[in-house]
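Dear all,

This email documents one entry for the complex benchmark we are building for the journal club exercise. For each entry we list the sequence lines for every component of the assembly. Then comes the predicted three-dimensional structure of the complex as a token string, followed by one or two observations. Please use this as the template for your own entries, and keep the labels exactly as they appear.
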Amino acid sequence: MSTTVEAMGQRVGAMSAAELSSRPDSRATVGDVTVANPRMVCREVDVWYGSKQAIKGVSLDIGKNEVVSMIGPSGCGKSTFLRCLNRMNDTIDGCRVEGSIQLDGQDIYDKGLDPVPLRAQVGMVFQKPNPFPKSIYENVAYGPRIHGLTNNKAELDALVEASLRKAGLWNEVKDRLDQPGTGLSGGQQQRLCIARTIAVSPEVILMDEPCSALDPIATAIVEELIDELRANYSIAIVTHSMQQAARVSQRTAYFHMGDLIEVGETNEIFTNPRHKLTEDYITGRFG
Amino acid sequence: MHSSTLLILLLGLMALAYHFGRKRAISSAGGIARINTLHSLPAYYGLYAALWAGIPAMLLMALWSGFQNEILIAILKSELPPSLMDGLSTGQVGLMVNDIENLASGAIVSGSVTPEMQAVADRYAQLQRFADWAMWLAVLAIAVGGMGYAWSRTQPRMRARNRVENIFMVILVVFSSIAILTTLGIVLSVLFESLRFFQSISPLEFFFGTLWSPQTALRADQVGASGAFGAVPLFTGTLMVSAIAMLVAVPIGLMSAIYLSEYAPRRVRSLAKPTLEILAGVPTVVYGFFAALSVAPLIRELGMSMGFSVASESALAAGLVMGIMIIPFVSSLSEDVINAVPQAMRDGSYALGATQSETIWRVIIPAALPGIVGGILLAVSRAIGETMIVVMAAGLAANLTANPLDSVTTVTVQIVTLLTGDQEFDSPKTMAAFALGLTLFAVTLTLNVIALHIVRKYREQYE
Amino acid sequence: MNKPSSAGAPPRRAIDIVNASLKRRYARERRFRLIGLTAVVMGLLFVALLFADIIGKGHTAFQQTYIQLPLTFDAGLIDPKGTRDPETLRSANYNALIRAALRDVYPDVTERRDIRALGSMFSVGAPSQLRDRILANPDLIGTTQEVWLLADDDIDMLIKGYIDRDLPESERRVKDRTVEWVERLEAEGRIEKRFNTIFFTHGTSREPELAGIAGALMGTFYTLVLTLLLSFPIGVGAAVYLEEFAPRNRWTDLIEVNINNLAAVPSVIFGLLGLAVFIGLFGVPRSTPLVASLVLSLMTLPIMIIASRAALKSVPPSIREAALGVGASPLQTQFHHVLPLAMPGMLTGAIIGMAHALGETAPLLMIGMIAFIVDIPSGFTDAATVLPVQIFLWADSPERAFVERTSAAIMVLLAFLILMNLAAVLLRRRFERRW
């Protein structure tokens, strides 16, 4: 199985949606999963938790400078899929990933590939803000320190400031960098986590329902931030809120029971869904 | 006439009271058919009677046997013929009373027996017999009286169940208060004797003196009769042994906790963890034996071969073995706090591309630090209070030294040494043990309170 | 938007820097892992060492050396009047029988010093061994039998190889002459190692070959029974009150703080308490299982209470609500429904508490359990000692033969502890219930 998938990975760029949907054992995805300028390319990804299959043959591209949102009812596998993209699933016992996921043409599940530098390239922001129990400064400086990104204190200071500025947090915390990150409000904590991720200069940022624990005002600030970040990064965001998906993303992917049902321009998906399940979901018939 | 016989008799009476109480309830209701006119089940009336028969009698019995001897001795002392008391110090009178007691019970007596003493002893034995009889009578009378009271109160409208339950509730409250009574007993017993000790030896000398030699005086006018009670060598000895123990236990315990909880495959973990915990279940006397007969000679040989002079009872041997004993203590406490660090912290770190050891060192350990420190403080308190290992392996010489190859002594060793063997209650030697006990109790209690507080705060943080 | 480079970050791509440092970071990772593994291995090694040391020293104590001697039960020495009166038989001089037998076997040994050395090859308990035989079977009087007699501990040590025969005589406890005799006896097959029944059936003794753990075992038994009887009901009662009935107030808080702290008070302090309060104030007789169990009960009480409360917590509230719902009183609810369900957990706690009490030594030293007591106790108020204290006393004895006996006693103690913990684990497995 794995050899065929790798072989498929080789000619992935040339493969059309019609070709992909001809695979018998997974549900055909409606819409074009490919983009012109891909950063990450996923083909026929299966994920198993023990004997339970959580993701069934999902193919999706994530383009440069775009925000892809993944929506779908609870337990549809969207978060699981997201965690495959920087191999965070490695930390879960009994989780098995098949298929091919490439970052800039390199298979990230390749035997020789090291998840440590991968995660430096593909950062992740979690559902619940999880600042380390350290100062605000140390939270942001953590990544650069472990990777040795800076040569001296001045550089590190500058990098921390730049990251906090990019996360739109600098003005709020510049006077209390030595205070614990856990003392910030929920929205500030989440932006701190984003700043922490940015500090290691990733190419892709994965966001797993980054606003679900935040109030509406904090959510608006984070959404604005996501839009700004698009200029430099590729972003994949899992969200429960269809409005959020509509506001922040250029493309939207709809997941259902481990299948990728439909992918398309966000406008298209929300105004003119082609698949019955997508339509039912966005019109609120279930979810 | 054993008091346990009386206890068994009382239990029998209680069973009888139960039977009659139950019978009486049924008959007062007008037979088994009309039993539903009773407020409670008949068994509760029985229990009610049994409790009335047993509890007051048992309380009286406990009080009586607790104080009988004190009172008898007081009577005896007041009746002692002046010819016997002539020119004796209070301590010597105490010794003599002891002799008289032994004489009366037919045990071996230390001094020679004069006819006068024999007479007093006979009188004492007579008093004792009388008191025993009186106790039997009084206890049985109270038991029967209680039974009678319950009998007279038994009627259908009496709320027997509620009454019985109230009594049980009181018993439960008393049971749960025993913990407080124990602490109170500890504090009072060590405090009382310590205060008496500090009347003869100044606290300044005790806490800052550097000479410890608590020999007993045989005569009042003996040179150096009061001995020397400077406890500093004991404190330094205790600290040294504990420090060695912590140097062994903390790195090994902490690192094995980290390895087992973060790295080890499940199978290894499920085997290694219980095996390590065996160390916690081994009695301390076994460690003492191991330290004294295996480790100490080994260290001595090793040291000798390298040209050091090593005492046969070195602080190093005791400390090492004590460290081994504390390893599972440190490792299980650390593992608990490490596991309490939320997975989100680990995820956050891994998502930034940290390796496992970086995550552990820079995120998990700092996050778990308060809990780990609390655990280590508990371990230190354990090490300070540990007795058998040092008694068997650390020796008695109160050396003020910083050399771990020397022999040192500790607070606990001295407590045990001063209080085992022949002793009299009033000598400074005995009371010194209580003063040491007070110091030990105060230090360990402080450590425990601080440690438990830190650990609780830590847990609340992640709950 | 600031580019990282404009903010002072290095000009190279971050990922290149990351990749460049990986080798060093992984070396650190491996080192860290290795240190962790070393720590675990060291811990396991200590366990292995401890057990190997104890078993290595102690396993030989389960055998005891006996020497065979052709011995005439001379009627003139045992029962000159021929009355077969048990009193006469009991008080006869059996030592003389052994001496006579030795004279026959070693006619060439005439010097007084050598004769004494010959006699000291046998235990001082050998004559009473003969006495017991005669008392059991008086018909032996007048006959000559090959009898196996208990050897002295020095001979025992020599046979077991603890005394090096190649050492110069001056450094050896057993002299050359005796070694010669022993080697001759060995060659004739007159020396044998047998299962050491004395170790399990006798009380302690100053003579290693006559010392056993029966007295200590009985003392331990009485002490533990009484400790269980005292601490289990009190512990369960206190747990029920604190968990189910206690109002949240200062008093309850005080009790809780107290229980947690008592669990961490050094055991030696409890000895002080026992000495001052139980012996000093209440006049409980010292050196008895009674006073020992009072002290141990107070020590195990916190363990009992904490375990019992955990067991009560695991009973779901729905059970209580169901019982209260059909009109049971709160106490009836406890006794009829909650306690039976919590009982396995409480019993597990009780076993673990008893295991603690079984191994405890320090506080008992101060309440007189350290006394030298030969007799096997037969009640709660008889003078007694307990197994761990016996171990402590033997460990202090200078005779070489006590080392192996101490180790053997430790093996017995550990065996009991392992059994108890095993029972606790099995009990927990058997009754573990998920609600």
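Observations: Strands of chain C lie at 63-72, 144-150, 191-195. Chain C has a mean pLDDT of 88.
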